[in-house]
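cron nightly-structures :: item 1 of 1
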Amino acid sequence: MRNLRPTLPLLALLLPACMNSPRFVDSPAFPKTTTEVVGTVIEILERQGFRVQAINEGKEVEAVQIRLSPFNKQGTRRSAAAKVDTVPEGTIVRLMVEKEINSNITNPLDEAQADWGSREFDLETEDLLLSLIGLKVMPPRIPAGTPVRKRD
């Protein structure tokens, strides 16, 4: 413990910087081109109600999903940032989704008057989006000879 004492002030300075840096969740590597994966990311985001705000350098996508509610603290705004990178194994998607709650009491259905509260990471939406992207990019294959159920 004595050896750590000189480094404690340094750790105290570095900790806030680490907490404010964005954290992304990575997908498995896909054997597809960057263009194909970016197209899939945009398609999935739009299907889930996100509005694409920007596409940077053909590899980064920023999107927002706003769901207003007449009830206090029920309206949400989700901001998604996806980065598509090439790694030796293929192409991966780095995704981050942040969620904010509308705390406007007087007019919660007016997006312009929304009072968005603190941001927090939305792990459920990240998992959902990454799962949908993975299913679209690499659909499961049904082995030949698998019996098919007949419909009446």
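cron nightly-structures :: done
The chain has one domain: 23-137.
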